[in-house]
# Entry
Amino acid sequence: MNERKIIGVVSGKGGVGKTSVTASLATLAQEDSMMKVMVLDCDVDAPNLAIILPPDNESKISKQDTYTTLKATFLENLCNNCKQCFDDHFCEFNALEWDSKNSIPKIDFLKCEGCGACKVLCPMHAFEINAVKSGEIISYKSEMGFPLIYGKTQLGSTTSGKLVSDAKEFVKNLEEYEECNLIFIDGPPGIGCPVIATLSNLDYVITICEPTPSGLHDLLRVIEVINQFNLPYGVLINKSDLQSPFQKPFSKHMSKANYEILGKIPYDLSIPKAMSFAKPVVQYEPNSEASIAIKEIYKNLKGKLWDES
Ligand code: SF4
Ligand code: SF4
# Structure
């Protein structure tokens, strides 16, 4: 098990248990003497793995700012107050307002996409485009003993995919990286840019869904993206025994599609209880039905990663 494996945990739909599962799998890996584990939260628009896996009391918390978002800056000293930028509607994103009192344009920071049109069109070159802070990458040793790294997008940033890529690069410079053989990445929900950045260079993808119409719909979308990367993946069905009229069509689809099922977690109140105490369920209630299922999933995952490679 010398070869390092990087596992992404994704879902087309949010709120299906990605973070709970990632925290529990990482906790089990930490208890496994064969593993040196590292965890990365790439759900950069809503990172919350750190709530379940807080820093160890002694741990130093390091922060690194990222600057990948472009925004316009107005250079008042160059402006001749011609108002052309406003009257001729230079900005397709409606980020330029007119300050009548001072006869100058005002930039709405949140609306600005950094496209550069104002810079090109202003006859006095009174705009420039600059990189501004787009987020942070935070890292520490978690209470569980393994390093936790997460990206956090700055309000108004348009480059969360780039922040994911930066966070993935960041871990390679950590001391623990060389000796670690298992990295879990908690990915963002959906199929957009940050998901695509999460999926690059993975060894295996766990895709989580619930047996509901929207669960299946979004699973199919995320599988389409995973297939573009030609990555091996397994489906994890959360709340697998949910009493719902959709169970039959869902099961029919799953058996017809012939997906590799990595495991199933039954509906079990120990999961929301563990969440309310901000603990991985395998630590909070190790003998619950959900924890037993996750342990089986961990065993299956190890088999997929090493026995079959
Ligand atoms: S920013 Fe440029 S276009 Fe706008 S008022 Fe000033 S000089 Fe005119
Ligand atoms: S950079 Fe583009 S989006 Fe931003 S203010 Fe200028 S024209 Fe508008």
Q: What stands out?
A: The chain has a mean pLDDT of 94. Residues 72, 90-91, 93, 95-96, 107, 112-118, 129 surround iron/sulfur cluster (ligand 2) (CB under 6 Å).
